[in-house]
């Protein structure tokens, strides 16, 4: 298939990653459900990475393919959306069972919809859950919640979902495992002279034009959707790596941070992209958190999170997940020093202002964490 001589390149150091695994790597031949044939090597890559102190979230397709084996009569071409959702519901348990058999650590199923990631409060909840699952030493396996989704199962949905999850958890790299070696300058299935592109510096129109449609009967995504996902990840400062998950020698090299495939570079660093977004995302009108001098010094000098103890007041109306301004109150008036995403609403911030983080739950009756604004969600003004 094309020019697939094994030339290796180094993968930059990473600490947290998302691995997207397509249906073509999990579905058994002949519509017989799921097969561990290619999943095993990918699981070994994940296990080696975790043992090295890294964190991995898997975004896995395959639920519908698994469901087809349970009720093959419902898998006819052009099946109604309700039938496909039913297949996804049947197949989810099989999909998690497949991944759990490879790991001694617990596998946690996380089902998301795009609405979960568009709604600010649900976005924060999803991110907090995923990060807590990683902190607990589990392996999160994410899939779209097809069973209750009101949209049809879209082309490449899990590719784009993987990019969104990568941004959600502040990943350093997005790995996309597919059944082709990477991005070629022509269709390698029809053009024997097609050449693999080891690196893409910019996803311009000419690069997107190289991508064709889906090449698999069981997958819903083609190369174009993978490039769209890479563009989403790149906007968040995350590199994307495309590789052939069917080639064990390729997967083994990933353990040693060596790639035979295509690396799509982000336009800017992950931290720079995050800070740019925080600096320029729209503020809620009049939404401010007033802090004392001690809190202002900790934010500016120590890179700390904003704790309730340093808060004097909340002004304006804002909800959990809204972008707010942070101001320090002095004799000459209020000075804006930062902006960030509040973990609590204005009413809640007012209630816990000046109190210790350990008192939050006793005051509010619930707890979204000890920070009013986490340092990852905060950018200093003038920096």
Provide a descriptive summary of the structure in words.
- It is a single chain.
- By secondary structure, the chain is an alpha/beta fold.
- It has two domains: 9-272, Carbamate kinase (3-Layer(aba) Sandwich), CATH 3.40.1160.10; 281-380, PUA domain (Archaeosine Trna-guanine Transglycosylase, Chain: A, domain 4, Roll).
- Helix content is 34%, strand content 20%.
- The protein has 13 helices and 15 strands.
- The strands form three sheets. It has an eight-stranded mixed β-sheet, sandwiched between helices.
- Helix 2 (63-70) crosses helix 3.
- The longest helix is centred in the N-terminal third of the chain and has 20 residues, at 81-100.
- The N and C termini lie far apart (50 Å).
- Residues 152-156 and 214-221 have low confidence and may be disordered.
- Catalyzes the transfer of a phosphate group to glutamate to form L-glutamate 5-phosphate.
- It is an enzyme of class 2 (transferase).
Can you give keywords for this protein?
2 domains, Carbamate kinase, Archaeosine Trna-guanine Transglycosylase, Chain: A, domain 4, single chain, 5-stranded mixed beta sheet, 13 helices, 20% strand, 8-stranded mixed beta sheet, alpha/beta, 383 residues
